[in-house]
Amino acid sequence: MELGRVNRLEIDRDTPPGLFLLDEEGNDVLLPGKYIPESFEIGELLDVFIYLDNEERLIATTEMPYIQLGEFGWLRVNQVTRYGAFLDLGIEKDLFVPFNEQARPMQAGKSYLVYMFLDDKTDRLVGTSKINKYLSNEQLTVKEFDEVDIIVSHMTDIGINVIINQLHKGLVYEDQVYKDVRVGDVMTGYIKKIRPGNKIDVSFQQIGYRNIEPNAQFILNELKKNDGFLGLTDKSNPEIIKQLVQMSKKTFKKAIGSLYKDKVITIEADGIHLIEDVEQDFE
């Protein structure tokens, strides 16, 4: 039974306080009555989150937290007391962030990027906004062109810092950003390059030849939504291209080049036109 994680446990018995659930080793935990499903059977498996209640007892809930133990997430501060900040975790109990784990003083109503860990001294689930010590690029688990999960951590003068697969630090350079991105956004990214020192360059778009087909599909979809016409060509201003289709001029040219080669579009002086009665599979 893992504290701070979602566990799949077996319903063992129904009691007035609630259901008692068992793990594979025979340990039990209470699922209070307010969380009991409308219908259930003894022996059925339930997915529950395990945490400590206010009396430091293990308790289960069917509410799903925004983050689990060992994960990063963007959480809102419900209140600040003389002990520290209490953040909305998505369950009945807030996540506590003591003052010494705050990168800067937290304020009620604001949101912060935090990491959930288990405090060795108290065995309690605790949050911290001092996240760098929980990220490491020493032993990389990714390689170039990999598709990865990213969280936007903060903006810098040269680009956007991101967390890769809840493990590593990466950077999307400013000139590679072709869509609106906000701190806290969770999205798919692609490993563009691994530089000396295991520094990771990330892209919001697939890399090289790998991004031609998806972007060709995007252009095709835009053409279909606009009666088969887009007022863009390979000579259009890069800023106009970025504004209308959220991609660089280089990527745009590759995408329409792919469509042109497959005889799906024509490129005229006024823009690109979808050829009628052409059946082409770009899925």
Topology as a string of helices (H) and strands (E): EEEEEEEEEEEEEEEHEHHEE
The SS-based structural class is: mainly beta
**Assembly classification:** single chain
Low-confidence stretches: 278-283
How far apart are the first and last residues' alpha carbons, in Å?
43 Å
Give the strand line-up of the largest sheet: 3-2-1-4-5
Q: Count of DSSP E strands?
A: 18
Which CATH C-level class of the largest domain is it? Mainly Alpha
Supply the CATH superfamily name of the largest domain: Winged helix-like DNA-binding domain superfamily/Winged helix DNA-binding domain
Number of domains: 4
How large is the count of helical segments? 3
- Could you tell me the CATH topology label of the largest domain: Arc Repressor Mutant, subunit A
Helix fraction? 10-25%
Reported CATH architecture of the largest domain: Orthogonal Bundle
Report the average pLDDT across residues: 91
Description:
The chain has 283 residues and is mostly beta strands. Helices cover 12% and strands 38% of the residues. The chain contains 3 helices and 18 strands. It has a 5-stranded antiparallel beta sheet, with no helix packed on it. A 5-stranded antiparallel beta sheet has the order 8-7-6-9-10, with no helix packed on it. Helix 1 crosses helix 3 (249-261). The chain is elongated, with a radius of gyration of 25 Å. Mean pLDDT is 91; it is low at 278-283.
